[in-house]
């Protein structure tokens, strides 16, 4: 994205005599973090004093930081004296206005007093002192840089994520800022669409969207340990992606990680990730729901911090993918966003990101959300179909979309809230449908995971039924890298899947090593 030109354009619409955010002088409209956000784009001597400085793009050439200084040191040097006014706390999820229950983020708490879910609540009055154009400009100004910690797509929205954390405590791999891919050929050829996009959240540090939430959670753990809170390690149950992200971020920070994996139910690539990153890996003879139950019991007994999305901190990072989509469309709102769902934290995270942008005036509406489930693990779909009358967990059956093989999702209430408030829809995909959709997408140049195949199936069904129109701007969220799931592709293309036609299989042709044989098969191929 050409952030500098965007930056200039949006500022001029805000103010005929524009100044970039960090140069605003009225103290009440000048969060101190705004100063740090761009400080390293300047020579520090000019950044704080010269209020006539031009915007970032035209700033004086940056003076290179001293060779013995790193980007953390540099950020520390630019740290403002005064703390900013933003803050956040845990509150019971969807609590009524009368509820006075809340907890500081430095407390170790995952559930409300009544046993319900928690949510991170931001001080919207403090954030709302700045208008939408102001936030858009600030976020745009941070894209594509290496300034600590704003080079991350998550921490570039720090004021909306964990406003009070010290930059020094942040553990980041500069996650986020993932590609929003225009699916030109897939859209045109299979759906007659010209405005179809795939948000590649899986093209990321550990190959899934979990990095977005894990940078936040592990950063907070880092802070808690510095505050001498009793956290000896961080643990999760996982279908493979949460464990990969947790172990990588913990390894980067030197924090012990413990992962509970359902034996033989995750891909080899996912299994090797926490092993390589030095996590303590338990392979347990149960399914994900069994692992989740165990980790909840263990984390209530031992000083191990819970890293699953039951912990609402995770969703604060994940919601930035929604903000990023809006940003990538130059703050235009897409009509539909389709998200594959398992434990169901992510669909709520997307809702929350979009809703904050609406509530703070960055956009004027939110997209309709679709949650897509594998038919073999579809408790939300069944609940939706019943008109949300009665929720029943299911026993999740084996699915190629193994990371969403979850029958008793912890965030069911969050998901229903997100869907009801976005005029949302739930769809499901059979094994054959999701594998065919994945193969179709791959045949147009993508290399997606089976979960993205589930989301694409939802799109295909909603296009066929006319719910999604040919001209609707639609975003499909791709949640993991296809390279984590190569075995499913090998099975499909070698046609070894029982009861599946694998109609798009493209197996390699065995051919003898002589000119005649090679030319014969090539002639056959070219005749087709
Ligand atoms: C690759 C992938 N896609 C989708 C999901 C579903 O996300 P959520 O559990 O937040 O619904 C998960 C994890 O559950 C995942 O690992
Ligand atoms: N797909 C997830 C399942 C756990 O989800 P979480 O978001 O609650 O951690 C995984 O990769 O483990």
From TrEMBL:
Keywords: Allosteric enzyme, Amino-acid biosynthesis, Chloroplast, Lyase, Plastid, Pyridoxal phosphate, S-adenosyl-L-methionine, Threonine biosynthesis, Transit peptide. Residues 172-479 form the Tryptophan synthase beta chain-like PALP domain. SUPFAM superfamilies: Tryptophan synthase beta subunit-like PLP-dependent enzymes (SSF53686). Gene3D superfamilies: 3.40.50.1100. InterPro entries: Cys_Synth/Cystath_Beta-Synth (IPR050214), Ser/Thr_deHydtase_PyrdxlP-BS (IPR000634), Thr_synthase-like (IPR004450), TrpB-like_PALP (IPR001926), TrpB-like_PALP_sf (IPR036052). Residues 39-64 are annotated as: Disordered. Its cofactor is pyridoxal 5'-phosphate. It holds the Pfam family PALP. GO terms for molecular function: pyridoxal phosphate binding; threonine synthase activity. Pathway: Amino-acid biosynthesis; L-threonine biosynthesis; L-threonine from L-aspartate: step 5/5. It is found in: Plastid, Chloroplast. The modification N6-(pyridoxal phosphate)lysine is found at residue 210. Its main location: plastid. Residues 39-61 have a biased composition (Low complexity). The keyword Magnesium does not apply. One of its GO terms (cellular component) is chloroplast. It catalyses: O-phospho-L-homoserine + H2O = L-threonine + phosphate. Homodimer. Catalyzes the gamma-elimination of phosphate from L-phosphohomoserine and the beta-addition of water to produce L-threonine. Belongs to the threonine synthase family. This is threonine synthase. It comes from Ziziphus jujuba var. spinosa.
């Amino acid at each position: 994205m050409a952030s500098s030109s965007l930056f200039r354009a949006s500022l001029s619409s805000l103010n005929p005599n524009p100044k970039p955010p960090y140069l605003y002088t009225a103290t009440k409209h000048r969060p101190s973090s705004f100063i740090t956000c761009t400080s390293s784009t300047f020579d520090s001597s000019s950044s704080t004093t010269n209020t006539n400085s031009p915007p970032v793009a035209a700033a004086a050439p940056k003076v290179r930081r001293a060779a013995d200084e790193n980007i953390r040191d540099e950020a520390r040097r630019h740290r403002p004296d005064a703390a900013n006014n933003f803050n956040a706390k845990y509150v019971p999820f969807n609590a009524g206005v009368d509820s006075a229950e809340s907890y500081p983020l430095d407390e170790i708490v995952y559930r409300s007093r009544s046993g319900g879910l928690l949510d991170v609540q931001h001080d919207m009055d403090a954030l709302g002192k700045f208008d939408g154009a102001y936030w858009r400009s600030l976020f745009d100004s941070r894209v594509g840089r290496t300034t600590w910690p704003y080079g991350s797509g998550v921490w570039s929205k720090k004021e909306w994520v964990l406003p009070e954390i010290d930059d020094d405590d942040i553990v980041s791999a500069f996650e986020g800022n993932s590609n929003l891919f225009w699916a030109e050929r897939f859209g045109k050829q299979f759906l007659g669409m010209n405005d179809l996009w795939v948000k590649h959240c899986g093209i990321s540090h550990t190959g899934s969207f979990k990095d977005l939430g894990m940078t936040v959670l592990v950063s907070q753990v880092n802070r808690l340990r510095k505050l001498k809170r009793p956290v000896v390690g961080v643990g999760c149950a996982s279908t493979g992606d949460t464990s990969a992200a947790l172990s990588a971020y913990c390894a980067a920070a030197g924090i012990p990680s413990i992962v509970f994996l359902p034996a033989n139910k995750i891909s080899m690539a996912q299994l090797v990730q926490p092993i390589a990153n030095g996590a303590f890996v338990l392979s347990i003879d149960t399914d994900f729901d069994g692992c989740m139950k165990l980790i909840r019991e263990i984390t209530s007994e031992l000083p191990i911090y819970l890293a699953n999305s039951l912990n609402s901190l995770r969703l604060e990072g994940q919601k930035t993918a929604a903000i990023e989509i809006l940003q990538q469309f130059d703050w235009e709102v897409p009509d539909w966003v389709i998200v594959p769902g398992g434990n169901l934290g992510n669909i709520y995270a997307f809702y929350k990101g979009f809703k904050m942008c609406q509530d703070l005036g960055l956009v004027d509406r939110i997209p309709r959300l679709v949650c897509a489930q594998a038919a073999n693990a579809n408790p939300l779909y069944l609940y939706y179909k019943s008109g949300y009358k009665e929720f029943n967990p299911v026993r999740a059956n084996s699915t190629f979309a193994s990371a969403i093989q979850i029958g008793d999702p912890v965030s069911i209430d969050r998901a229903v809230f997100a869907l009801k408030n976005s005029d949302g829809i739930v769809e499901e995909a059979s094994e054959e449908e999701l594998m065919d959709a994945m193969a179709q997408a791959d045949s147009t140049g993508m290399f997606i995971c089976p979960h993205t195949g589930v989301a694409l199936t939802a799109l295909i069904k909603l296009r066929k039924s006319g719910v999604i129109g040919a001209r609707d701007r639609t975003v499909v969220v791709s949640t993991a890298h296809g390279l984590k799931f190569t075995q499913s592709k090998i099975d499909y293309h070698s046609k070894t899947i029982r009861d599946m036609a694998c109609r798009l299989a493209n197996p390699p042709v065995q051919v003898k090593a002589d000119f005649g044989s090679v030319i014969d098969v090539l002639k056959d191929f070219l005749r087709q």
